Amino acid sequence: MENLYPMRINKYLAWKKISTRRGADDLIEKKKVFINNKLAVLGSRVNESDIVEIKGDKNSKVYVYFAYNKPIDTITHSQQKGEHDIKEDLKNTTLQKDVFPIGRLDKNSHGLIILTNDGRITDQLLNPKYSHEKEYTVKTSNKLRSNFKQKMEAGVNIEGLPAQTGYITKKCKVNIINDFTFKVILTEGKKHQIRRMCSALFQEIADLKRERIMNIKLGNLKSGAFREIKGEELAIFLNMCYT
């Protein structure tokens, strides 16, 4: 991917959804924009490692983004009695109180969840019309059928209804690792989609782990741990969200 930096300050502020380019120019002229604690001027350029601040603007907000490895049994939404959710898991950490999970992982699944206080990216991440990739590693209890990859990739009726009325999932990419393990890349996120797809194809899931959302990878992040998304990784992520 081409280098996004250096970037003109008005383009940067518009890209971050802080203002329009014209609005950014207005903020600069009013001497409210600072780059590394130095007053920005029209035409200033921002590098990847620079810290950009809007001072004297009560409406400005610092947005943060984290990758979190959700453990099994942690609830992302709609907590029921006797269950615990992500906020409970994170209440004794250094994370800001106003961060929230984007998207869901069911109770019995684990892996990557993005935490943020930036509600502007919710639709960009969750709306299937944007076709953002999410990658999962799935282990099954029974041996994968010989036509499993072909069936999954073509789209699966996950509602148990006739083809003309049941929902057929979008095409996806499947990589068979061994007789009981495969990776799948989806660009949509129906409720329990992978479990429903596998069930329709007579495969029982033993373990489901989300490894990647767009360019954000889980990597070696331990269960229950989090890391900040920043620098070039964040720049690419936000660029993908808004393109």
What does this structure look like?
- The protein is of the alpha+beta class and 243 residues long.
- The protein folds into 3 domains: 7-54, RNA-binding S4 domain (Structural Genomics Hypothetical 15.5 Kd Protein In mrcA-pckA Intergenic Region, Chain A, Roll); 65-127 and 221-241, Alpha-Beta Plaits (2-Layer Sandwich); 133-213, Alpha-L RNA-binding motif (Alpha-Beta Plaits, 2-Layer Sandwich), CATH 3.30.70.
- The chain has helices at 9-15, 21-29, 86-90, 122-126, 148-154, 193-200, 231-241, and strands at residues 7-8, 33-35, 38-39, 45-46, 52-54, 65-70, 74-75, 84-85, 100-102, 110-116, 134-140, 173-178, 181-186, 205-213, 216-217, 226-228.
- The strands form 4 sheets. Strands 6, 9, 10, 11, 12, 13, 14, 15 and 16 form a 9-stranded mixed β-sheet that branches.
- Helix 1 crosses helix 2 (21-29).
- The longest helix has 11 residues, at 231-241.
- The mean pLDDT is 86.
How would you describe this structure in keywords?
243 residues, alpha+beta, Structural Genomics Hypothetical 15.5 Kd Protein In mrcA-pckA Intergenic Region, Chain A, Alpha-Beta Plaits, 3 domains, nine-stranded mixed β-sheet, three-stranded antiparallel β-sheet, 16 strands, 27% strand, rRNA pseudouridine synthase activity, EC 5.4.99.-, Pseudouridine synthase, PsdUridine_synth_RsuA/RluB/E/F
